[in-house]
Amino acid sequence: MRLEPLRRKHVRRCVEIERILFPGDSPWNAGAFHSELDAGGYYLVALTDDDEVSGYAGLATMGTPGDWETAVHTIGVLPQRQGEGIGTALLEALLERADQLDAPVFLEVRTDNDSAIRLYERHGFSRVGLRKRYYQPSGADAYTMTRPARQAQEVAR
Length: 157
Prior knowledge:
- This protein is α+β, with helices and mostly antiparallel strands.
- The chain is globular and about 40 Å long.
- The chain contains 5 helices and 7 strands, in the order E-H-H-E-E-E-H-E-H-E-E-H.
């Protein structure tokens, strides 16, 4: 498995994976992925040795130099490839990018997604809020989680 920048040629497969992973909610369509790429988001794909997309992730950056904030907008891994470290590798690559900007990282995660919550907590995220009925149309709740900027982490140590 290797990580590469998400390109437009990967979008169709990412949309297919979204539909598999999030059937009860509003999976991203091709337009959403293209919009994120157009906005300059930092998006990656996890590719197999055969160049098949097995996962993807994206980080949005907001603010100005010296005052950046970032948000994990999506992470998805094919169900049959989960547990192989792909999600971890994708998240670590996003966090490395946030650390380069010395930016805090925010995200939302379903309150019933225990494996994702554990992954985020292992990487320094903590719960800071609850968004009732965040995911639609299912109405599932989401935790808002954050990880401080690298500089803040170093000061805390």
